[in-house]
């Protein structure tokens, strides 16, 4: 099933989803349209979850209650008069950044590829405000755009096996901040001590789609030691409910998962076959 309009197409996504795919380009306007459509379809009949991306919207549906054709038609109808979210609607959040050195090992290469000095590269990167176009890849990882054309740098040919939490990177027209210590292929130009994702906070995600980010250069003297730990790894709270004395090979403890947070980079997790788990 492929149905199209002037600006987007609705495509199948297995038996539990639909994808509304916008134009094949990266822009704040398209990102705003994705967010606007996401709000309008969030409570549509049969929709379990909406997941906005850079230029598409994933609709997770209940295959037993959703009318796929009707939902696709509703999406295309909404697109006819859809206007993007206003750029000024989100919050403005300032992030202090230590540029270069151990905090930004790729800054010199980025500057060289751009024909700039490192100081000029820092000034160019921190001169503008960036919009959070989407969140994904890791919990709270913000995809920020749009990077100035003269500063754009490709991803590393060989990704790093470990990127410290708080690292600020560039990948083509995007810049972003690693919320956790993970593998990654973006070119690292700096690091912020601000915790981007912390499950201990009432709102664990610092940056949400539509927000704006301003990078503020600071000296390393202000932050003599940026924590290297991963804030996502915290000790569980509460009282123990069970003790596993002898687990079988590949035994894991699973629940039914948690929906509603894919748009923030948090997978639903849980058992692969929820129906079988409930019957077990």
Descriptive keywords:
280 residues, alpha+beta, Gyrase A, domain 2, Cyclophilin, 2 domains, seven-stranded mixed beta barrel, five-stranded antiparallel sheet, disordered N terminus
Would you mind describing this structure in some detail?
The strands form 3 sheets. The protein has a 7-stranded mixed β-barrel with strand order 6-13-10-11-8-7-14. It has helices spanning about 30-40, 70-80, 105-115, 120-125, 275-280; strands at about 5, 10, 15-20, 45-50, 55-60, 90-100, 130-135, 140-145, 160-165, 165-170, 175, 180-185, 185-190, 210-220. The protein contains 5 helices and 14 strands. The relative contact order is 0.14. It has about 280 residues and is an alpha+beta fold. The chain folds into 2 domains: about 5-85, 2-Layer Sandwich (Gyrase A, domain 2); about 90-220, Beta Barrel (Cyclophilin), CATH 2.40.100.10.
Give a summary of the structure in a few sentences.
The protein is an alpha+beta fold and 280 residues long. The chain is built from 5 helices and 14 strands.
Task: Estimate what percentage of residues fall within beta strands.
Answer: 15-25%
Q: How many discrete domains?
A: 2
CATH architecture term of the largest domain:
Beta Barrel
Q: Number of DSSP strands?
A: 14
Written as H for each helix and E for each strand, in order along the chain, the element string is EEEHEEHEHHEEEEEEEEH
Tell me the layout of helices and strands.
Layout (H helix, E strand, L loop, with lengths): L2 E2 L4 E4 L4 E5 L6 H14 L5 E6 L3 E6 L6 H12 L12 E8 L7 H8 L3 H10 L2 E6 L6 E4 L14 E4 L3 E5 L2 E4 L4 E3 L2 E5 L20 E7 L55 H6 L1
Parallel strand pairs: 6-14
Antiparallel strand pairs: 1-2, 2-3, 3-5, 4-5, 6-13, 7-8, 7-14, 8-11, 9-12, 10-11, 10-13
């Amino acid at each position: 099933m492929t149905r199209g309009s002037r600006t987007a197409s609705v495509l199948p996504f297995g038996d539990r989803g639909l994808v509304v795919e916008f134009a094949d380009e990266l822009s704040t306007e398209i990102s705003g349209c994705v967010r606007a459509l996401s709000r309008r379809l969030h409570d549509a009949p049969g929709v379990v979850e909406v997941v906005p991306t850079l230029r598409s919207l994933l609709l997770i549906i209940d295959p037993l209650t959703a009318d796929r054709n009707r939902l696709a038609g509703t999406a295309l109808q909404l697109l006819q008069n859809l206007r993007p979210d206003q750029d000024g609607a989100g919050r403005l959040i300032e992030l202090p950044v230590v540029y270069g050195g151990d905090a930004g090992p790729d800054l010199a290469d980025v500057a060289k590829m751009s024909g700039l000095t490192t100081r000029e590269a820092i000034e160019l990167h921190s001169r503008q405000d960036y919009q959070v176009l989407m969140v994904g890849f890791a919990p709270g990882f913000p995809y920020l755009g749009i990077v100035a054309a003269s500063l754009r740098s490709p991803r590393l040919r060989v990704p790093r096996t470990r990127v410290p939490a708080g690292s600020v990177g560039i990948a083509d027209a995007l810049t972003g901040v690693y919320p956790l210590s993970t593998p990654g292929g973006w070119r690292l130009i700096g690091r912020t001590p601000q915790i981007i994702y912390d499950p201990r906070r009432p709102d664990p995600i610092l940056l949400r789609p539509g927000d704006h980010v301003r990078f503020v250069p600071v000296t390393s003297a202000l932050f003599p030691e940026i924590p290297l730990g991963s804030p996502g790894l915290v000790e569980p709270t509460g009282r123990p409910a069970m003790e596993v004395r002898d687990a079988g090979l590949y035994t894991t403890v699973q629940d039914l998962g948690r929906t509603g947070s894919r748009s923030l980079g948090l997978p639903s997790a849980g058992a692969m076959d929820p129906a079988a788990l409930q019957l077990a």
